[in-house]
Fold these 2 entries.
Entry 1:
Amino acid sequence: MAKLDKRSWAEPYKMKMVELLKMTTKAQRAKALKEAGFNTFLLHSDDVYIDLLTDSGTNAMSDDQWSAFMTGDEAYAGSKSFYKMEKAVKEYYGYKYIIPTHQGRAAENILSQILIKKGDIVPGNMYFTTTRLHQELAGGKFEDIIIDEAHDASNEFPFKGNVDLGKLESLVKKHGAAKIPYVCIATNVNMAGGQPISMENLKALRKYTHKHGIRIIHDMTRVAENAYFIQQREKGYEKAKIKDIVKEICSLTDGATMSAKKDALVNIGGFLATNEWDVFEEARNLVVVYEGLHTYGGLAGRDMEAIAVGIKESVNDFHQRARVGQVEYLGMKMEQYGIPIVKPIGGHGVFVDAKAFLPHLTQDQFPAQTLAAEIYLDSGVRTMERGVVSAGRKPNGENYYPKLELVRFTIPRRVYTQAHMDVIAESVAMVYDKRKKIKGLKMVYEPKYLRFFQAKFERLK
Ligand SMILES: *Cc1c(COP(=O)(O)O)cnc(C)c1O
């Protein structure tokens, strides 16, 4: 027998139900792509083979979650399922008060309305689409205070989600701490490619914000994935459990918005959490206007049951190793084919550097949008753009031109196999081989808000 230097590991679950996929021909995909205006968001999922559009709400629930689902209490007020969800949030995250919402952006809307006044500044470790929009709609201005390394796709710094305290300090000096209602900290920064913030950096930020009386609001959508990276990379945490790291991260912040559709292994749901009674009071009032009573916030009782179980499963060490491990496998496979990807490989997906992949296209020819369309055409794998289209326009109407122009291969949790990962990497390699012949796109329809969802394009001649 060959000598092994390393033993393989596999998913800590097995399958007991499968969903059959439709296989398509290239001609069918070409037609579907044209009808979708070269926007992968506008494809029918029926025409998609492997769907890597997002890891949001695409999770496979466990048998424990499905059985909890059946016990959902659909009472309008005081549902016992709400109290279970509340208990799980308190136990695993440690926040004092919670309000369920139908998804993360609903929590962002309510929180932004409560905390942000016109003219306020909201610093954050890189923007997120819905988060920034709600900050702006509430009259605030987002300021990016992430470290410069995060904007460099080839920089391999292990904590590209870190805050540059110098950048925060100059904002405080310029505007005064009173103009900064909170610093928004995302764990495992989505827009940086799923990159973590270190505990050391978060502690330093806590110290600084305490001194200036500024809150930290935690966008905790992928907190457990961030905790996994801390366990793997940060000195002193090698032996710590993900569960304990998650709790420590939360303890360094004053409140949170959560999209349970990511980390928490469900298909819909979210919440707003805070340690401040006043903020909770007001949020409890506002949630009734936008979502529903404060004990269901737009969710069915069964959804709250599934979230309570999902939160617990998400902080399991074996789960996170398999989850992030699968993403890493795909990234390493792409690297072997010479594909330019963002390094280090992120927690929820592999991000291909479209500027480096298609260097002959200008940013106004939408390289990432183009590449996502070409990959779909090749194999039916659906990815999405994270570049100039996603970045949208400034309040004054000018385009944002982000440094990063990426195609995101987001991996749903517990859904696809290692063989699927092989097929994906092979497809990207095929497109890479003929990259010089690929032409860019022009935008022919642009919606006013979050344009990447509905914009339409045509191929340049
Ligand atoms: C998905 C996401 C949100 C918004 O949550 P929804 O549930 O999609 O409304 C906010 N922040 C980050 C980092 C996200 O990934």
Entry 2:
Amino acid sequence: MDSTQPDIFTGTFTQQEPIPEDAIAAAVAVMRHGRLHRYNVGPGEVAEAALLEEEFAAATGARYCLAVASGGYALGCALRAVGVQPGAPVLTNAFTLAPVPGAIAAVGAVPVFVEVTEDLVIDLDHLAAQAAATGAKVLMLSHMRGHICDMDRLMAICRAAGVTVIEDCAHTMGAAWRGVPSGRHGLVGCYSTQTYKHMNSGEGGLLVSDDAQVMARAIMLSGSYMLYARHRAAPPPEAFETLRWTTPNVSGRMDNLRAAILRPQLRRLPAQCAAWNDRYRVVEAGLAGTPGLTLIARPEAERFVGSSFQFRLAGWGAAAVQDVVARAAVRGVELKWFGAAEPVAFTSRYDSWRYAPAQTLPQTDRVLAGLIDMRLPLTFSLDDCAQIARILRDEVGRRFQTGV
Ligand SMILES: *Cc1c(COP(=O)(O)O)cnc(C)c1O
């Protein structure tokens, strides 16, 4: 690098890859025949939505799968399908994003927040304590920013407390814990195919489960009318016998156009996940040993997908953190800070969801006060990632050189 030129990054942190050509061709085929509604099929035709469900079930090893309108819809649908009633307490991560407590509130239930650890996962001791204190029987577990907690211990705690686990895998599609795909530990796994997630259909969601009753209810809820037999990754028609009379239609289907562009992306998902991790590891290596900066440990048992990067500026004051964020921005590196008092763009925190009862979570407050978050879109090259790390190292390290 020419040392007289300032090192400025010019990439765009919100720019995804284009939709692959075979997915575009599949979308055009659906538009040419015009049957976009998933239950609108020609003689002998299997809808793209039904094929996507079959393929996603196979990819995750789930017995059943349902494609829906969004990740948030999948979460709400799962809560209804497991029988969460209005007024019921539902455990969830204090460190997550707005659609998670939003889905709980949307069914009239009450979010009960659980502390986050310094490794950015749910605090399992606090989880056990909150379950005991509130009597909550459902946990909506958010694998926030792709960090997976000790799932063996989490499931043991939840089994002992009689807590049903729904997994929010918006950031862990393609990830696994001890070889078990994320979304397959709990009773239901929920995924998002919104533009910023691991597959891109603009909006979209998926649910997986091995439980016939829960999935039959989810399918009825999603707006199947009496056409559930057109699903393939679904329980047999007998499972719907009673449910079809008692389950409301809370319309939120996926259409064939989105399903058509997701199927080719699903085939590429393992390669995409590997590409994300290559980028993640370059940033991680570039930041290792930076004074004042704490990297997040990634356990051996966790097969993560590094589609975003987090680090902590532990113990820094708010002004010093804001200064780093501002100076990185000048050099083209867009950081998000989870410690800000006001919700900004996609970033908000548990105390900004004021429809939920107020809770005090000192450990979460302390972790979020120094938590920095950054997207790593696949449009960045490995060189881009090295440059980003160099800039951050420089700007974070500056505080120690100058003693600000
Ligand atoms: C994106 C997201 C969701 C919801 O997905 P949408 O498809 O946008 O509704 C849920 N949880 C987390 C953590 C997310 O980031």
